[in-house]
Every structure is written in structure tokens, then in C-alpha cells.
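Can anyone check this?
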Amino acid sequence: MKRCMKALALVAVVMVWAGQPSAEGSDYRFDLSPMVGGHIFEGNQNLDDGYTMGLALGYAINQRCTLEGGFTWISTETKKFDVDVDGQRYSLDALYHFMPEEALRPFVLIGAGALRLDPDVGDSETDFMAEYGAGLKYAIMDNLDLRAELRHVMPFDDFYNNLAWQLGISWRFGKREAAAEEEPMAVMDSDGDGVPDDVDACPNTPAGQVVDELGCPVVLDSDGDGVPDDMDVCPNTPAGQPVDELGCPVIADADGDGVEDSMDRCPDTPQGAVVDSRGCWVIQGLTFDTGETRIKSDFLPLLNEVVEILMTNPDVRVSIEGYTDSQGSDSANQRISEGRAKAVQEYFVSKGVAEGRLEYQGFGEENPVADNETEEGRKQNRRVELRPLQ
């Protein structure tokens, strides 16, 4: 009896273990297994080996574990007197399958039940029993397996060792419905900016506004001029181009002489200075006769305007630079150009401009501002320019 209790306790533990939840599912809930085979009795039982027919019904807890109830009919006879004996084996087993996804699936089993022997002559006998075993299943269809197994059957009252082998098929049925996929929770996005409300740091953004990963507005400035696209009246300005508050180009003119810095060959001219198209400070209208260095009285008002600018800007120092046209020799033109610059310098000093603020030099026929092939062009080249000194 103690052996019986130990075996039943072991079966209970296995059944509890087999019933634990598994991550794997089983396609079918049930299987029905008709089988035939043989039952080999221990020699001292005085019974010949018999043949068997059985039926088992299993419930698949998951792909690996099955609980199975079985009934097997045994036909045998006694060794002496040839008395026919009918036997019945009842069992409740736990099966564990290896490689459940494969076509060939080994399994082991353990269980308990009862073994009844009913001879034609004499009294019938029923013993509790325990059993364990192993087998193979091979899938020949989606829901149909070939099955073979061997069991060690152990009746308890008079402990015997019996072997039972069986061959048959297992028909699986009761297919499980596929688990419905859990529908994702609806994501709330009240302002429609694509960022869920639970992470949106800037709710209620206007429709169409581009936002970052926190739902806060992103300022777009496609041309990189520092003015947001939604305010940029002049998009696509070139890189580095200064613009106003509307994103439109602003002409950079650091010295305010009306000539853009990128084209100004004479930067830093003082306020009020008259410049030419190059941005250079010229005494507009002052010219000299050919070969002359004398300043005509008609041009003195022009020089007085420059004196006024110099007196207004006492920190400005200038270089007075004289030029000639292309007529005459280089040496003569150099001497004449220096004479024209010196005449202007002397006039400025006579009007109160400190001599230390003034330098003069001649450049001959260099740097013409007009075409020396025409009389008008040559006249414009006979000039004096002023260049601020740092």
C-alpha cells in the first residue's frame, strides 16, 4: 500500500507540473488513440503473454504536455490448465512530448490506475498499479499521428513487473481558435500634430505646424537667413546674404557711401564723402589741364566741401593721391601726379587742416577710371583721390 501511495503522489506532482501555463499553444485540444499490442506478465504470475486492444483519450494542456485517460482490454490464459483470463487496464497518465514542432515527436509518460484480471474459473482480482514509459509519435497528416509505446506496469498488492507495448494511431481534434490579436489602445492626439497627448509638451499647436518629438513648434528657415519661413517675404536668399526682418536682401555698406561692401575698393570713407562707382573718395569735378598742377579757382568750392568733412571728422587721416592721363612719359607723369596731390594738400593745410593728418603721393597714369583713348576719358583721369588712413 505504501508503494501505491508513493506512486500516486508522484503522478500528482507530474500532473500539476504538466498543467502549468506555457508560452506555446496547441493547435488541438483533444486526441483519441486506438491501439493494439501485447502485455507481458512476470513469470511467477502464472499467466501467458497476452494480446491487447486499447483506447486512450487525451487533453492537450499545451504543445508539450497532455493528460490522458486510457482503457486496455487484455486477452490471456493461465499457464496451467489453459484457463482463459480477461484483463482490463485502466490508467490516468501525464505525457511530455519532446520537439513538439517536429513531425517525429518522442514522449515519456507516467501514470497510475488499476489492473483487473477475470479468469473463467475462479475469482477476479483487481490491483492498483503505477506505470511509466516512453514512445514515439509521427505525424502523417496535420491531425493524425502514428503511435508506438512501451510501458512498465507495476501492480501493487503482490508487486509484479509487467511490460506492455502498443501500436496505433492518434487522431487530434477540437482545434483551438487563433487567439485574437489585442487591438492597440487608441492614441490620443488632441491637436493632431502626431505626438500623443501623454508626451506632448506643447499641446494645442496650430494645424499644419511642424513640431519636434515633444510636440513643440519647430521654426523652419529653409534658406538659413535667420527669418522663419512663415515670415520670409524673400525666400531662397543666397547663403551669407544680409537680410532685413522680412528676409529680404539688405545691401551691406559699412561706410555708408552707397557702394556695397563686396564692390567697395575704398572702405571706411567718412560720412559725407563723395565717392565714385568703386567706392573711392574723389573730389567730384576736380580735374587738371594737361601737364598742369595748378588748381583752378572754379574748383575751390569742391575742395572746401572736403575741408568741411575733414574738420567734422578730426580723427580721420587721409592720403591725397594724384593721377594723370596716359599722355607723356612715365617720369613726367609721375612728377605731375605728385605735384597735383601736393597742391591739394597745401590748400587743405591753408584752410586749417593739420598737416600731420595729410599725406600725398603720385601714381602717374596708373588706375585709370576712364578710357584714355578719348579726350573726355583723359580729362577724367587727370584727377585727385582721397584715401582714408587707418
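Reply from J.R.: I decoded it. Residues 1-25 have pLDDT under 50 and may be disordered.
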